[in-house]
Specification:
The structure holds 2 protein chains of 2 kinds.
Chain A lengths: L7 H7 L5 H4 L5 H22 L2 H20 L14 H19 L2 H10 L1 H6 L7 H28 L7 H28 L3 H17 L12 H9 L1 H14 L8 E4 L4 E3 H26 L2
Helix pairs in contact in A: 3-8, 4-5, 4-8, 5-8, 5-9, 5-12, 6-9, 8-9, 9-12, 9-13, 12-13
Chain B lengths: L4 E10 L2 E11 L4 E5 L6 H8 L7 E6 L2 E2 L4 H7 E4 L11 H11 L4 H14 L15 H13 L5 E5 L7 H16 L3 E6 L2 H7 L2 E6 L2 E6 L1 H8 L2 E6 L6 H11 L5 E7 L5 E6 L5 H11 L6 E5 L3 H9 L3 H11 L2 H9 L1
Parallel strand pairs in B: 3-8, 3-9, 6-7, 7-8
Antiparallel strand pairs in B: 1-2, 1-4, 4-5, 9-10, 11-13, 11-14, 12-13
Helix pairs in contact in B: 3-4, 8-11
The chains are: A mainly alpha, B alpha/beta.
Chain lengths: 297, 339
């Protein structure tokens, strides 16, 4: 830092770029978008690597759900949850989806903290090709976490006697987790831009998380529920993710046409469930668009 | 050559608070331009509008002749922004932050690597670049923030209160660095509520108060405009009120003396405004000796920017600071800006 003004090397380092167009290439928007997204994703993974407690808690928690809830109902009469079905086997799909859902619901928090600490400004003053790269990076990160958690739960469930679906079944589980995570992550990011601060965001997460779990078929089948709750559970996207995975766990032979769930008003096939989840994603992305555009003008 | 930055009739409100009423100024290429004003005058809001973080309600903003409002991406490419609150990811190392920054500005990988090395060297960050930013002191964080702002070789570097909260040594380093930047041809725009900072660094400045520009020009021009020189006289190290009043009475009869104030906060020293070029020191000395009064110290100086501020607003910058500090709701302002 001494004799700054004298060295010519220092001078060239500090000089403005006289010919902007040759240095920064703006012709390749897709390449630039990928560059931004990867750099932002890398940041999230470096944070995860240096502060792994979130991931550890995220793996331990579903594991505890699995063991505690399994123990809670372990003396329930055989056959209560379906033909010769143990509760552990019944529960595993619910925990897989609920875990992915919780993780995705929290996706907005890091963005909210970036907003509050001013780090987001650093991104917003940069000439990003599209500010959707911020959303894309968070989504990639959350989906990766959800896959790690799902793998652990699937493994643990197999160990707890819930069985293990085949390769096609596992791929189908991955697809379903992907679809539910995509929609919920987008929703959470939308909230991170719409709400005034992290207190409000945490409040929303708090009142959404467990009620949506109980108003789904994660812990009990539809026909256990009061009529009004059956209606709510049949509108809950979590149910549309849980039921097909449960079907996969129970039936080795399944096809796209298999009927995987019975709502009070219709039977839904595997393909139908996927369509419902796609529609949910599309609806969320469409709904949050104005929120993002307001920030991302 | 187009002006580096032109801001014209800028207006911006947050909710019902009119933060910027009417601000206009022009920054010439290659100069250090200072935006001086007390806290709450609208400096940060102006900078946020310039750096495309906030959309002005009305007015014109141009960077190198191109509208920042219509072409925000071009403005973002040409500007480097160093915020007042150093926004650093504590978990990333300095180098990782710079790598992230390089990708956000789409600097090709090889060029980015070279540039990062250069900036780490020039800013003396070699010992810190591979440590997590959470371990940095305030001065080091500021240096990292400077490196990040300069990574893409902006034409204009914009710094909001660059030395607030820094120790004296770090402050000197930042000052030297900004002078070196100017010498290398980069235009620098800084905001500050420190008079001496703007006085020491700025080639030209605009003084803003409550959302409007109250004076613009070079420090010399502004000082000449209010006219007169300042003389500070101390009869003794600790002067009695009687003696001070006696001296005041005596000196006020001199033809070149325009005004005399007894500064009680400074042990009754006397502050005189005198006509410039009147060879006044020896005349003041002479009449004091004749009246049998001793002289502990006697010094003449040009008016300071504080005098300029005082002449324009009727209060000193310090008083304005104190007044603003008691009425501002910083938390509310922050929430407003986040929207």
């Amino acid at each position: 830092m001494t004799q700054l003004t004298t060295s010519s090397k220092i001078k060239s380092t500090l000089a403005p770029n006289s010919n902007k167009d040759t240095q920064i290439d703006n012709s390749n928007s897709l390449g630039n978008f990928i560059q931004e997204t990867l750099a932002l994703t890398k940041r999230l993974f470096i944070q995860l690597q240096r502060r792994p407690s979130t991931l550890m808690a995220g793996v331990i928690q579903p594991f505890m759900w699995l063991i505690l809830f399994g123990a809670l109902f372990s003396k329930a009469p055989q056959g209560l949850f379906g033909n010769d079905l143990s509760y552990a086997k019944f529960l595993a799909p619910g925990i897989i989806v609920f875990t992915a859902f919780s993780g995705a619901l929290n996706a907005g928090l890091p963005v909210m903290f970036d907003r509050e600490f001013g780090f987001l400004n650093r991104l917003l003053v940069a000439p990003l090709t599209s500010r959707y790269s911020i959303v894309a990076a968070s989504t990639i990160y959350i989906i990766t976490l959800a896959f790690i958690q799902t793998a652990v739960i699937v493994g643990a469930s197999a160990f707890l006697d819930a069985g293990l679906p085949g390769i096609a079944g596992l791929s189908a589980i991955a697809l379903i987790v992907l679809l539910i995570v995509l929609g919920v992550t987008a929703l959470s990011l939308g909230l991170a831009f719409a709400l005034p601060g992290h207190i409000e965001l945490i409040a929303v997460i708090f009142v959404t998380n467990l009620p949506l779990l109980f108003a789904s078929t994660a812990l009990a089948p539809l026909d256990f529920m009061a009529g009004w709750l059956q209606v709510i559970a049949s509108l809950n996207p979590l149910t549309y993710a849980i039921e097909p995975i449960r079907y996969l766990y129970l039936h080795g032979d399944w096809t796209v046409g298999s009927i995987v769930m019975n709502t009070p008003w219709a039977e839904v096939s595997f393909g139908g469930v996927i369509l419902v989840l796609l529609a949910f994603d599309a609806l969320v992305l469409f709904t949050i668009q104005p929120l993002l555009r307001r920030r991302f003008a | 050559m187009a002006a580096a930055v032109v801001i014209k009739n800028l207006k911006k409100s947050y909710g019902d608070v009119l933060a910027v009423k009417d601000i206009s100024f022009t920054v010439k290429p290659g100069e250090i331009f200072g935006l001086l004003g007390p806290n709450g005058a609208g400096k940060t809001t102006t900078i946020r509008c310039l750096c495309t973080l906030a959309k002005p309600d009305d007015g014109k903003i141009e960077v190198g002749g191109i509208s920042a409002i219509d072409n925000p991406k071009v403005a973002r490419q040409r500007l480097g922004y160093v915020a007042q609150e150093v926004a650093i990811d504590k978990v990333l190392t300095g180098k990782e932050l710079l790598q992230l920054q390089a990708a956000l500005y789409h600097i090709p990988k090889a060029a980015a690597k070279q540039r990062i090395e250069q900036l780490i060297e020039v800013l003396g960050l070699q010992d810190y670049a591979n440590k997590q930013a959470g371990t940095y002191s305030g001065g080091i964080r500021k240096r990292l923030d400077l490196a990040a702002g300069l990574l893409h070789q902006p034409e204009v570097l914009v710094l909001d209160e660059p030395t607030v909260g820094l120790d004296i040594e770090s402050r000197r380093i930042v000052w030297d660095f900004l002078r070196a930047l100017k010498a290398a041809g980069t235009t620098v725009l800084i905001t500050s509520h420190y008079l001496e900072e703007i006085d020491a660094l700025a080639d030209s400045l605009a003084i803003i108060d409550r959302g409007v520009v109250i004076a613009e020009g070079t420090p010399s021009q502004l000082k000449d405009k209010i006219g007169g020189d300042r003389v500070t006289l101390r009869i003794r190290e600790f002067t009695s009120t009687d003696e001070a009043e006696k001296a005041q009475h005596l000196l006020s009869s001199l033809p070149f003396v325009e005004e005399i104030i007894i500064n009680k906060a400074q042990n009754n020293s006397l502050n005189l405004i005198v006509q410039t070029g009147s060879n006044c020191l020896s005349k003041i000395e002479h009449s004091l000796i004749e009246a049998g009064l001793p002289i502990f110290s006697l010094a003449q100086s040009r008016p300071s920017l504080d005098d300029v501020y005082l002449a324009a607003t009727g209060k000193t910058l310090l008083d304005a600071e104190l007044a603003a500090a008691s009425t501002r709701d910083l938390k509310k302002e922050k929430k407003q800006q986040m929207k």
